[in-house]
Amino acid sequence: MTNRDVIAVAHPTVVHTRETWVSYLQLCMWGLFLFTFAPATAILRDELGLSRTVEGLYGTALAIGGMTGGFLAPRIVARIGRGPLMRIGSIMAIVGLSGFVGIHVFAVTLISLAMACFGAAISMVGINAFITEQQGLAAPRSLAEANGFASGLGLLGPLLVGGCVALGWGWRPAVIVTMLGYGVVEFIRGRDVERYDARHGHPASQPGHEPSGPLPSLYWFAFAVIVTITGTEFCMTLWGSDLLRDRAGMGQAAAAASLASVVGGMTFGRLAGAPFLSRYDPERVLISAFIVAGLGFGIAWFSTSAPIMLTGYVIAGTGIGLHWPLGVGRAIRASAGRTDRGAGFTLIASSLASGLMPLILGALSDRVGVHTAFLIVPVLIATALVLITLKPVAALISDDPES
User: pLDDT band at residue 208, thresholds of 50, 70 and 90?
Assistant: First the structure.
């Protein structure tokens, strides 16, 4: 039975429990910070007198925190369970963001950002693993919903940064909102966190922990797709405002706020695309999403008109919006029941890309200009299309395949 046949017969429906909504909300908090952080770093660069190459180290700090979190999260789950892991993630995100906004020293902001990303990363491992196990065949749609709500709330990030800068308040109040949001998440979660352990998220000393053994070979192809997905998204969101300033002559505050066009497109793509995932093969939807992203990028890259560039950003964002939830879902499916490890390594793949790609783009920008350097995006898109076509992932994979 093909992916299309499985989806067509099942028509999976998302089950929205209290735990589902809390997981969505926790993911929203990281979405708000991530899309606030992107335009804010361009302003922080000017504030601290940094070059674009040095600014790229903030992406490296995100990568270090995310890679460490992705690596350690399955080990933490094996000791204390998935539910406690998600709570610890919120606490560490709050502490790290406090240092990021409160101490105006470059080195301290890097360390604090890495800590915040570590907390967010272990939370995301728990969230993605929990949703995948809870929802079954409906997981692609549920992950698209969760990330759609996250990018929807993230839509406020660039607007908050642009508005606060215009009012003379700086970018920091928007990040403080995220810190408060994480506190609200844990208040709503309450004391009972064991429900988030689901099928494979229990400590190794209890029944229900994930299967032993290495991740299947198919997983590593899905891992590579995650690298291209995150590289594409981070290049557009972290440096998109610079392209607008360079090509369309937009001011600092306007360029930062206008990145809401990308985030808005991502939100639309995820929420509007989610229902299709109950009818169509997620692999084909993902391929279509990459094609849409490439079209939008081309419109923006070839233009010097702000309205046309923003139109391209919206179209690119619409395609990009489905990349991450579908990429994560297919990687976890390819893990064959090693749910937390599979989710953890997606964060390592994402962190590699979020750290290296923007840094490469920043270094190229200092040498050949932002416009030419942005050609890295279509290279990433083409690579992803080749990998997905050559190594598709089925809608259902048993816990212990022979692969």
Answer: low
* 303 CA to centre of own chain: 27
- Tally Cβ neighbours within 10 Å of residue 278: 17
**Which position has the token pair 């000393």?**
205
Greatest alpha-carbon span in the chain: 60
Tell me the pLDDT band of 221, cut-offs 50, 70 and 90: very high
Quote the number of domains for the chain: 1
Tell me if 10 is assigned to some domain. Answer: no
Helix, strand and coil content of the chain, in percent to the nearest 5, comes to 80, 0, 20
Determine the Cα–Cα distance for residues 378 and 285; give it in Å rounded to an integer. Answer: 18
* Strand (E) or helix (H) holding 11: none
Task: Record the pTM.
Answer: 0.81
Alpha helices in 49-138, H assignment, sequence order: 52-55, 57-80, 82-102, 106-135
Query: How many other β-carbons are positioned within 10 Å of the β-carbon of residue 187?
Result: 8
**Three-class HEC string of 170-230:** CCHHHHHHHHHHHHHHHHHHCCCCHHHHCCCECCCCCCCECCCCCCCHHHHHHHHHHHHHH
Residue 318 pLDDT grade (very low, low, confident, very high; cuts 50, 70, 90): very high
DSSP state letter for 337: T
Counting every residue written for the chain, the total comes to: 403
Residue 370: strand, helix, or coil: helix
Under 8 Å between Cβ of 203 and 79: yes
Residue 3, in any domain of the structure: no
Q: By the 8 A CB rule, do 147 and 25 touch? A: no
Distance of CA 255 to the CA centre of its chain: 22
Which pLDDT score, from 0 to 100, does residue 207 have? 67
DSSP 62: H
Lowest mean pLDDT among 60-74, 172-186, 344-358: 344-358
What CATH code is carried by the domain that includes residue 267? 1.20.1250.20
252-264 confidence digits (pLDDT tens): 666 666 777 887 8
Question: What single DSSP character describes residue 261?
Answer: H
Residue 45: inside a domain: yes
Domain that holds residue 223: 15-390
